[in-house]
């Protein structure tokens, strides 16, 4: 009887599976070791999950303390400054763009600034101070204020020019170029400006000042006195006394237009006399 050989199927290659190369005992031991490692590994805590938490908290606290200390130091410095003499005005000085008719003390008094005042306070009230100066002293046209060397205050002013002197009683008051009558007065004229007398109406005086300012300086400087002498026929008549000895009658509203011809008329006069510019232009000797 013939034997039949049964062909067993070849087992699959285990080269790709390292575990298949172990014996059953070695595979069992490896499995037990893996289970033991998994059971003994500790659970991670919050500090292990966030290792920088304490460091971040510390940095945040340091920043807050630094900020608070900086504010405290600044407050102490500011308080110390205001308590020290460095915060007070040290030196007050006055300058002008031209020869000022005002004394330095008059300008300082007009500003109201004192050496006991705070420099910071003066800077904060700068506009108020300069406005006060032009209001309290009519001769001041404009004023500026500056602080130098941290403590020194410098006042710079521009003043109105004096164009004449107004006689009131026995006192002479300066007439400024803007038509304002200054408050300070003298018993005698202290300049070569024309003297305005007998002017009671402010409007007529202002009109006369404007007319006189239109004249050339050579003609204007030759007028010694201007008297307001109205009549029924001419309520704007003025009587002028000239430095050359002549006298002039004119009308306020046409004063500048006609008075510019005075030098030519005076040259033709043989003797000192009167020039009438009210109606036309003619002259006659005294």
UniProtKB/TrEMBL annotation:
It is a single-pass type II membrane protein. HAMAP family: DivIB (MF_00912). This is Cell division protein DivIB. Its main location: membrane. It comes from Loigolactobacillus zhaoyuanensis. Residues 1-44 are annotated as: Disordered. InterPro entries: Cell_div_FtsQ/DivIB_C (IPR005548), DivIB (IPR026580), FtsQ_DivIB (IPR050487). The gene is divIB. It is found in: Cell membrane. Residues 1-11 have a biased composition (Basic residues). Cell division protein that may be involved in stabilizing or promoting the assembly of the division complex.
């Amino acid at each position: 009887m013939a034997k039949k050989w049964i062909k067993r199927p070849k087992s699959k290659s285990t080269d790709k599976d390292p575990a298949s190369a172990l014996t059953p005992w070695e595979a069992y031991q490896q499995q037990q070791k893996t289970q033991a490692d998994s059971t003994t590994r500790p659970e991670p805590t919050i500090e292990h999950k966030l290792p920088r938490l304490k460091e971040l908290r510390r940095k945040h606290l340091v920043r807050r303390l630094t900020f608070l200390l900086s504010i405290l130091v600044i407050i102490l410095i500011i308080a110390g400054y205001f308590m020290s003499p460095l915060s007070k005005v040290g030196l007050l000085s006055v300058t002008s763009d031209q020869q000022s008719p005002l004394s330095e003390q008059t300008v300082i008094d007009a500003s109201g600034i004192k050496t006991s005042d705070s420099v910071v306070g003066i800077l904060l009230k700068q506009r108020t101070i300069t406005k006060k100066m032009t209001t309290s002293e009519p001769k001041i046209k404009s004023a500026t204020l500056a602080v130098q060397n941290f403590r020194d205050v410098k006042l710079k002013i521009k003043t109105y020019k004096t164009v004449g002197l107004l006689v009131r009683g026995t006192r002479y008051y300066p007439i400024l170029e803007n038509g304002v009558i200054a408050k300070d007065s003298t018993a005698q004229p202290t300049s070569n400006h024309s003297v305005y007398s007998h002017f009671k109406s402010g409007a007529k005086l202002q009109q006369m000042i404007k007319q006189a300012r239109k004249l050339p300086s050579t003609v204007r400087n030759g007028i010694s006195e201007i008297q307001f002498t109205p009549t029924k026929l001419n309520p704007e008549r003025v009587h002028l006394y000239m430095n050359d000895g002549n006298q002039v009658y004119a009308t306020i509203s046409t004063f500048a237009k006609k008075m510019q011809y005075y030098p030519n008329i005076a040259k033709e006069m043989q003797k000192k006399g009167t020039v009438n510019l009210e109606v036309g232009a003619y002259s006659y000797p005294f």
